[in-house]
Amino acid sequence: MAVVVRFPPSPTGMLHIGSARTALFxxxxxxxxxxxxxxxxxxxxxxxxxxxxxxAIYEGMNWLGLSWDGEPVIQTNNLARHAAVxxxxxxxxxxxxxxxxxxxxxxxxxxxxxxxxxxRYDGRWRDRDPKEAPADAKPVVRIKMPLEGETTVTDHVLGxxxxxxxxxxxxxxxxxxxxxxxxLSVVVxxxxxxxxxxxxxxxHMTNTFRQVQIIKAMGWPVPEYAHVPMILGxxxxxxxxxxxxxxxxxxRDRGYLPEAMxxxxxRLCWSHGDDEIITDEQAKTWFDLEHIGKSPARFDxxxxxxxxxxxxxxxxxxxxxxxxxxxxxxxxxxxxxxxELATLARAMPDLKPRAKTLIDLAEAALCYFSTRPLAFDDxxxxxxxEEGKKHLAALATEMGALPDFTAAAVEELFRVYxxxxxxxxxxxxxxxxxxxxxxGTSPPIFGVAEILGREETLARISDAAAx
Length: 467
Hints:
Elements: E1 4-7, H1 17-32, E2 36-41, H2 51-64, E3 73-74, H3 79-91, E4 95-98, H4 102-114, E5 140-143, E6 150-155, E7 159-164, E8 172-174, H5 182-192, E9 197-201, H6 205-218, E10 224-228, E11 231-232, H7 248-253, H8 258-266, H9 280-286, E12 297-298, H10 301-314, H11 317-332, H12 338-351, H13 358-365, H14 378-383, H15 386-400, H16 407-420, H17 425-437, H18 445-452, H19 454-466
Parallel strand pairs: 1-2, 2-3, 9-10, 11-12
Antiparallel strand pairs: 4-5, 5-8, 6-7
Helix pairs in contact: 1-9, 3-5, 5-6, 8-10, 11-12, 11-13, 12-18, 15-17, 15-19, 16-17, 16-18, 17-18, 17-19
């Protein structure tokens, strides 16, 4: 059997990180089995669905590198087909018109609550003659759920689960305006798309027992299910805005790499031994449903930072410079030109070891995009005192005479000077850092001098002496 899975986001907001994890699991399962990974936009909530949210879903999926097969299915395009299935069930006697008014339903629920009963539709129109209905009533269509017995679902994650059919009330398939409900639309689309495996959040488990009844009533094959535990925040509560970054776009904008996100999301409720660093190729080979855990996973920003730092260090310097450029643009108001990108690439070996995100890289690299004269922060001003300027003036003369202006040569010059003048290396390196970057922190400062070059380095020292 060829594997076909789907990811069905609702375009009512940004692509949530939990949804992205579900999409990743579906994508990996399809890729491992040489199957299809389909995208379905479930836009039937007309009031809340927006084109902007659809665009955000596409952008989030593309940024994560989760390419889908074929064109996205837009659920509202299939509403007529969904309604036709409901009418077919009516014709077969497996569904019926319900003429209950909202007031009747509210009274029914209130009575059930008073008696301590489960609140559910009681099937009062299940066997009644429609001729008894008020002339102006607009009915809904309900499915006839089995009244006795039980329904069992064998789930790849949660195991075998059984519910009594008496717990399943006759749910609505078509609303009074003729529009299909979510429950019906999902089932019909899954069948028409040939879905073989449904991998989704475990909050849908209750829906599964209801949707299976529609599938069986139509005589369609029941897909295999895998219900994935939710992602919790670091405090163990449901992951939300108060935890800082619920949307995929937040992670992109905070400077995380998509490959790091894929690796991190993969490890939330899934494991392969003790492996933490898992490449895409390994994931496509190893991923299975049986190693998805049953317990919710807590989001750990420290672990994500560590993974992202790992992937930053792996990226080739030229590619990383290109990837960092948009974050530098946000800080300096323009995109770096080709020469500046080449400079940035040369600086990457010194920048990468201390960076956790692309924002860290951009901030550390700002010294290469600063225009003279530099503005000095308080720490820099502290180091550019009279003694610091005196040392820099003496060193500038010797730096100008260096045969090779390299980081190693500049460092050696400073070490010799420090020993000769009985000063600590930091007492002269810190003023150099202040003069070249305008701050008290920077990448290794002798490397900064080499990348800036002799002319720019001496010019910045001269500016600092005059400040």
